[in-house]
Write a structure and sequence with these properties.
The chain is an alpha+beta fold. It folds into 2 domains: about 80 residues; about 150 residues, Cupredoxins -  blue copper proteins (Immunoglobulin-like, Sandwich), CATH 2.60.40.420. Helices cover about 35% and strands about 20% of the residues. The protein contains 8 helices and 10 strands. The strands form 2 sheets. Strands 3-2-1-5-8 form a 5-stranded mixed β-sheet, with no helix packed on it. A 5-stranded mixed β-sheet has the order 4-10-9-6-7. It is found in: Cell membrane; Membrane.
Length: about 300
């Protein structure tokens, strides 16, 4: 038998390799998408931290899987039954038992450490955030108010969704934002997929012993759809809102308008009117993402009235 015949790769392995290459190529995924292993792309440092944990957890799991599969195939290929004589036994091999007990323990400890570290970072809250927004859920819409800003009539700047207008939550990029969550009726859930984070909004959270705040920083401008992620009644599926992330200078201009009266109406600027007045392209369009909501009565509940 010649050297080429001894080293020739078996046909099944060739076919398996070809199928694997075709499968990878057919997905059309970029390198960055492949390394995310299905994790959604986020727009906050907290989301990036979770993605990093997910990526390395999957890589570690694949490495363990390859090792286990390799040992299985090695045992099948090289330790097949050859006679009636029992092979060498290892059930009382103390060093081996220590190894396969200690290695999984170390793996669990390492995974726990990085999971706890990431969780602490994601849930950490700044003592003195740059901006604060109160998020109020009600059947079946949202209210957003900014306790640090007041309209000329002395009320907090706020936006309340209605059956004719999807509420806009306008936020700055590159600033720490604290969200205070509550509900006026039933349990809702504040969820922005691009944040890779959601949290329930409870009525009377102080009586439910629930953490009703969280913080993050948005690191890029954009328009993102927000949703209620807790089944809350008839029009739960239509309880959407939009996050409009603006650069700090645009956000300051937006808030400057929101704290003034609109000369055309004599009333404080609404979120849509302020964005239109800024004239900064599609990002300042009141309907950049979701458009006009469904024509349903989504306001059977009541907003907080800015309280």
């Amino acid at each position: 038998m010649g050297l080429s015949e001894r080293t020739r790769v078996p046909r099944p392995i060739k076919v398996a390799g070809l199928v694997g290459l075709v499968g990878i190529a057919a997905t059309g995924c970029t390198t960055e998408e492949v390394l995310r292993f299905g994790w959604p792309d986020g727009v906050t440092p907290q989301a990036d931290s979770m993605r990093l944990l997910w990526t390395w957890s999957v890589i570690a799991a694949l490495a363990v899987g390859v090792l286990v599969w390799g040992l299985i195939f090695w045992s099948v290929a090289f330790h097949r039954k050859k006679s009636e004589q029992l092979p060498r036994q290892f059930q009382y091999n103390l060093p081996l038992e220590i190894v396969y007990t200690a290695v999984p323990f170390v793996m669990v400890v390492v995974l726990f450490y990085f999971t706890a570290t990431t969780q602490n970072y994601v849930l950490a809250e700044e003592q003195d955030p740059d901006e604060t927004v109160n998020v109020v859920g009600f059947q079946w819409n949202w209210e957003f108010n900014y306790p640090g800003y007041q309209t000329p009539d002395g009320q907090q700047v706020r936006t309340v969704g209605s059956s004719s207008e999807i509420p806009l939550l306008v936020l700055p990029t590159d600033r720490t934002i604290q969200y205070n969550l509550s509900s006026t009726d039933v349990i809702h859930s504040f969820f922005v997929p691009e944040f890779n984070f959601k949290r329930d909004t409870f009525p009377y959270p102080e009586k439910n012993n629930q953490d009703n705040t969280f913080s993050n920083t948005i690191d890029q401008e954009g328009s993102f759809v927000g949703r209620c992620a807790e089944l809350c009644g008839t029009y739960h599926s239509m309880m959407n809102f939009e996050v409009r992330a603006l650069s700090p200078d645009k956000f300051d201009r937006y808030m400057q308008l929101r704290t003034q009266n609109n000369p055309a109406t004599g009333a404080p600027y609404t979120a849509a009117e302020a964005l239109q007045n800024m004239n900064c392209g599609e990002l300042c369009s009141p309907r950049a993402v979701t458009g006009v909501p469904f024509d349903t009565d989504r306001t059977s509940g009541e907003a907080s009235g800015g309280q």
